[in-house]
From TrEMBL:
Subcellular location(s) of the protein: Membrane
Segments of this protein annotated with the region Disordered: 1-26
EC annotation from Swiss-Prot or TrEMBL: 2.3.1.225
GO cellular component, one term: membrane
Protein name according to UniProt: Palmitoyltransferase
Length: 311
């Protein structure tokens, strides 16, 4: 019987060997080995998660500044100078609510552990404690020295293996993975909504200023008003297109239960196929409710399901 230490293979080596076999015997010998839940539970699950990446931090700050700029123009250039009090109240309440939810979703996506695998747990002692049967193996990531679960990928920025990693997004300074995909989807949705809302208000404000005196439609000078509105229009249009595309790709990825990396690498599907509705509930929570749209609600992410490794 081989010692347990020989049952831990580097991912690159094991995939290379399976590909070199050329036959189906290797695939027939593969088994799904149930591993204890604590293997794939992040050691930092209860602690604050924050990636110290200069590019990501700068992008996250820019994101907040752009939202605050939109807030400034909407409130002080368009709504407060308006003579229609009901128009200002309704649009101000709607815009600020959506902006608050967008920033809250951004914070949750940035400060939530995306599903990091414990670092350095691929030790001889730990593998022996798994009590693997003869011939069974587990995958080891050679970069972070961790036991790598199925559908996990190593992120060079986070320097960790992330479960169901979709991609690393610098705008949220974090990976989009199993535990924070809901918040990233909400972030893109709310940014798209406030961008659309801002564009609609800019159009109405331009029409109002053309019909009325430019000196009365804003507390700023006419040139300053035009510049501020044009910049907001450009920002709103740019982010409406960008976040709408991201939102659509994320929803498609969830419904097909295939991450962005898996689609890019065209990885063989080795996990059970579920309905689109089951995949949506696995990300946003069980059952469907208004909490799906709340960044303050933490879904279970299908933790009741049994996690398994592919070998």
């Amino acid at each position: 019987m081989k010692s347990p230490v020989h049952r831990c293979r580097d991912v690159e080596h094991s995939r290379g060997q399976s590909g070199a076999g050329g036959g189906t015997s290797c695939l027939q010998e593969e088994q799904r080995i149930p591993i204890s839940k604590d293997v794939i539970t992040s050691s930092s699950a209860s602690a604050m998660w924050f990636i110290r990446d200069a590019c990501g931090i700068v992008c996250a700050i820019i994101t907040w500044l752009l939202v605050l700029y939109a807030e400034f123009v909407v409130l002080f250039v368009m709504l407060l100078p308006s003579k229609n009090l009901m128009y200002s109240i309704v649009n101000g309440t709607l815009f600020n609510t959506l902006a608050f939810l967008a920033l809250a979703s951004h914070l949750r996506a940035m400060c939530t552990d995306p599903g990091a695998v414990p670092k350095g747990n691929a030790t001889k002692e730990y593998i022996e404690s798994l009590q693997l049967k003869p011939g069974q193996v587990v995958y080891k990531c050679p970069k972070c020295c961790s036991i790598k679960p199925d559908r996990a990928h190593h992120c060079s920025v986070c320097k960790r293996c992330i479960r169901k990693m979709d991609h690393h997004c610098p705008w949220v300074n974090n990976c989009v993975g199993e535990n924070n995909q809901k918040y990233f989807v909400l972030f893109t949705m709310y940014i798209a909504l406030i961008s659309l809302h801002a564009l609609v208000m800019v159009v109405f404000h331009f029409l109002y200023c053309f019909e009325d005196d430019w000196t009365k439609c804003s507390t700023f000078s006419p040139p300053a008003t035009v510049i501020l509105l044009i910049l907001l229009c450009f920002e709103g249009l740019l982010f409406l297109i960008f976040t709408s595309v991201m939102f659509g790709t994320q929803v498609h990825s969830i419904c097909t239960d295939e991450t962005g990396i898996e689609q890019l690498k065209k990885e063989e599907r080795r996990w059970a196929k579920k309905t689109k509705w089951m995949n949506m509930r696995a990300v946003f929570g069980h059952p469907f409710s208004i909490l799906w749209f709340s960044p303050f609600s933490t879904p279970d992410h299908g933790k009741a399901e049994t996690y398994q490794y592919v070998v």
